[in-house]
């Protein structure tokens, strides 16, 4: 086994929700059920001050977290300046600043 | 799909008098298959098939790897058609799916851009002094086998039935991408519901397995395997398919493309060696057959004469299920009785400890 073939099998980049551990994601949604009403419009990212200067993408991070992809989420959320402009533009009225805080609190050890 | 749409995805296939274009790679991978096709057509069905020693590779692999320019491949294909005209045939059949895709693509290109056809005629005349007439009927050899499937079923000696249980064998059919995914109306059933292999399986008593990744590519894709560093992507595609089909417990896989049969067979060996995982029953791999081999078995041909000893995954479990009588000691004897060498034992043929079932269930 493990013979040297000169290449290794590429792992798929799909998000497999059946295999991901959704415990933290469910905890976040239990505390903030309104996050489920997100339509993914991206207004939060478009208006984001931090996102203007860095590659920080709020919509991407919270979507990945909801699908159980936690690696790097805490570090990403630390780029948020908590200015709250995203909350002003959210068409669903989601408290996005609280989402950022909640993800940081729940996923600090990932 | 509406019933009326289905009619658009049928093609006319000639009954007799075929000009046979061989594949450049199949004779290495599955050396008995093309011979079996000729034997079945000429001896069993009494059809006229001309196997021309003058024709060359269609250069499709070079074309898809950006080595052979479009004008060159057009001229090579035009030469094949010229040879067909010289031999007095009108129905062109090719053994390879890549070639079939190339012939279909170039005929369509000539139709859409007549100036390219004119230039090709000029190039061919300058290079070889030949002129050509386009074939009246173009088909892949699996289309021909599909066309004559009922005639084969009448002569069938071993249907695709498990002799131990009396139930139909569960068969995964895999169609080459270039068969109908480029020009869906040139294949039987189009790209979404290709019926060419499923029709054969059903006519010969087997049961077709429908599984989630049925239409996924095998991973052959020329650029994915030609460069060694990219091969991981190729294996990943085969692995995705194998993982998807394994829970349906297929008895064997049948392909109509040289590359698919090759890679679904050989990558099972690679996955087993790299990760120790096998996908068939009893900790073994799933045998992979070409449609000629399947037809040959059904018609009672000797498996070693069909070249089935050249498979990476051993076919003996399938032969036992079908009730085929074979001589195990003759497996590695060539056609003239000369020993051809025996491969090293491989995990894929010797009960892997990590079968997919034991991991997931």
Average residue-wise pLDDT of chain B = 91
| Oligomer designation | heterodimer
Biggest β-sheet description of chain B? 4 strands, parallel
Q: Proportion of β residues of chain A?
A: under 5%
Radius of gyration of chain A: 16 Å
The strand count of chain B comes to 10
Q: How many discrete domains of chain B?
A: 2
Shape of chain B: globular
Summed up, the domain count of chain A is 1
The average pLDDT value of chain A, as a whole number, equals 91
Strand order in space, largest sheet of chain B: 2-1-3-4
Q: Main attributes?
A:
heterodimer; A: about 110 residues; 7 helices; globular; B: about 350 residues; Glutathione S-transferase Yfyf (Class Pi), Chain A, domain 2; Rossmann fold; 4-stranded parallel sheet; 17 helices
Question: Explain this structure to me?
Answer:
The complex is a heterodimer of chains A (110) and B (361). Chain A has 110 residues and is mainly α. Chain A has one domain (23-107). Chain A has 7 helices and no strands. Chain A is globular, with a radius of gyration of 16 Å. The relative contact order of chain A is 0.20. Chain B has 2 domains: 2-141, Glutathione S-transferase Yfyf (Class Pi), Chain A, domain 2 (Up-down Bundle), CATH 1.20.1050; 157-358, 3-Layer(aba) Sandwich (Rossmann fold). In chain B, 44% of the residues lie in helices and 9% in strands. A 4-stranded parallel sheet of chain B has the order 2-1-3-4, with helices on both faces. In chain B, strands 6-5-7-9 form a 4-stranded parallel sheet, with helices on both faces.
Record the SSE blueprint:
The complex is a heterodimer of chains A (110) and B (361).
Chain A: H1 23-31, H2 43-46, H3 49-53, H4 58-66, H5 73-77, H6 85-89, H7 96-106
Chain B: H1 3-8, E1 18-21, H2 26-29, H3 33-44, E2 49-51, H4 60-64, H5 70-87, E3 91-94, H6 97-112, H7 114-128, E4 137-140, H8 141-147, H9 149-154, E5 170-174, H10 177-180, H11 196-203, E6 207-208, H12 222-226, H13 231-245, E7 252-255, H14 258-275, E8 277-278, E9 288-290, H15 291-298, H16 316-322, E10 354-355, H17 356-360
Parallel strand pairs in B: 1-2, 1-3, 3-4, 5-6, 5-7, 7-9, 8-10
Helix pairs in contact in B: 3-15, 5-7, 6-7, 8-11, 13-14
């Amino acid at each position: 086994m493990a013979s040297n073939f000169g290449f290794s099998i590429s792992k798929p980049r799909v998000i497999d929700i059946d295999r991901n551990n959704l415990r933290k994601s469910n905890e976040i949604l239990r505390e903030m059920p309104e996050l489920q009403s997100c339509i993914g419009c991206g207004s939060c990212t478009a208006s984001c001050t931090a996102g203007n200067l860095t590659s920080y993408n709020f919509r991407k991070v919270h979507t990945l977290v909801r699908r159980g992809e936690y690696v790097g989420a805490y570090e990403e959320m630390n780029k948020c300046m908590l200015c709250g402009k995203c909350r002003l533009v959210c068409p669903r009225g989601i408290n996005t600043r609280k989402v950022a805080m909640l993800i940081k609190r729940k996923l600090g050890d990932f | 799909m509406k019933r009326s749409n289905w009619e658009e995805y049928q093609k006319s296939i000639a009954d007799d008098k075929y000009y046979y274009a061989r594949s450049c790679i199949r004779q290495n991978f599955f050396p008995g298959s093309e011979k079996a096709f000729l034997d079945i057509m000429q001896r069993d069905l009494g059809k006229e098939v001309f196997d021309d020693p003058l024709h060359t590779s269609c250069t499709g692999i070079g074309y898809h790897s950006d080595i052979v320019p479009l004008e060159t491949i057009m001229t090579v294909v035009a030469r094949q058609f010229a040879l067909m005209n010289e031999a007095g045939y009108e129905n062109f059949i090719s053994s390879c799916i890549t070639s079939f895709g190339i012939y279909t693509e170039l005929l369509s290109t000539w139709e859409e851009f007549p100036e390219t056809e004119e230039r090709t005629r000029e190039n061919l005349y300058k290079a070889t002094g030949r002129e050509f007439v386009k074939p009246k009927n173009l088909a892949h050899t699996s289309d021909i086998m599909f066309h004559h499937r009922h005639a084969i079923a009448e002569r069938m000696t071993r249907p695709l039935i498990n002799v131990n249980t009396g139930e139909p064998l569960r068969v995964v059919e895999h169609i080459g991408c270039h068969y109908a995914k480029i020009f869906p109306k040139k294949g039987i059933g189009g790209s979404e519901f290709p019926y060419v292999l499923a029709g054969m399986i059903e006519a010969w008593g087997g049961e077709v397995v429908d599984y989630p990744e049925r239409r996924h590519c095998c991973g052959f894709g020329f650029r994915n395997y030609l460069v060694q560093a990219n091969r991981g992507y190729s294996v990943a595609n085969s692995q995705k398919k194998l993982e998807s089909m394994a829970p349906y417990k297929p008895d064997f896989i049948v392909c109509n493309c040289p590359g698919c049969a090759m890679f679904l067979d050989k990558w099972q060996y690679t996955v087993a060696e790299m990760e120790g995982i096998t996908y068939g029953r009893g900790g073994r791999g799933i045998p992979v057959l070409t449609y000629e081999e399947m037809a040959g078995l059904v018609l009672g041909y000797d498996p070693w004469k069909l070249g089935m000893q050249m498979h990476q995954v051993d076919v003996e479990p399938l032969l036992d299920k079908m009730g085929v009588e074979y001589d195990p000691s003759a497996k590695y004897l060539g056609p003239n009785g000369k020993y051809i060498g025996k491969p090293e034992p491989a995990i894929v043929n010797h009960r892997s400890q990590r079968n997919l079932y034991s991991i997931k269930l």
